[in-house]
Please model this.
Amino acid sequence: MDKVVTTAGDAVADIPSGASIAVGGFGLVGIPWILIEALLDQGADDLTIASNNCGVDGAGLGLLLEAHRISRVIASYIGDNGEFARQYLAGELHVELTPQGTLAERLRAGGAGIGAFFTPTGVGTLVAEGGLPWRYHPDGTVAVASPPKEVRSFAGRTMVLEEAIVTDVALVRAAVADTHGNARFHVSAHNFNPDVAMAGRLTIVEAEKVVEPGEIAPDDVHLAGVFVQRIVALTSDQSRQKAIERRTVHVRPQTEGAS
Model:
């Protein structure tokens, strides 16, 4: 039952090129930084990534993008990642933009064994009707567009069918995990991480602290160990590796007579 592996490199060593990978985090919160860097060093390419976003320039999944190791992204937004936008608009990257809540539920449904579900989100838009640009030609014309989806009415409300997401691998960051894989996430890092972990056939958790089974109170377990296959115990330096997506500083005015 001990699922701890020696290094992040060992944890991702067998991820093949062409794999689909769900990655936790929201913006730059709850990102599995160390596992992403290990995957960059490992060399796998032609990757499909399912994540809320694709990091930022020079950090997180942005590193894999800059190395042209990602061929397809399922995400809810592009954000401030200039290289993500450039590759998408230049026709170098297949991008399936998905409403944020729908993406979270697609991942959770995949982990729960639910093949698809109906939601009102996206009804009456290109999300349901098809035509969202998934890939561009280099000249800016649309090469691949999203297909129309099934729409039905339930109790008088129109809804669109969304398919669940199951990936080959999931990469997750937890605040605490026990050696059996039960995990707890810290405040806003409890965003996409549990859903991502559920969606992976092979789920790898990097944990800021690893404890023995029973040390996490049952009510504090956010992710059951049954969903986790490998755990990487981070060093104190690795645990402190975090970033702020956009830092805003307010300069306080000097009060009269202040030294």
About this structure: The chain has a mean pLDDT of 94. The chain is about 20% helix and 30% strand. The helical segments are 8-12, 33-42, 61-66, 82-89, 100-112, 126-129, 193-199, 236-239. The chain has two domains: 4-115+164-236, 118-163.
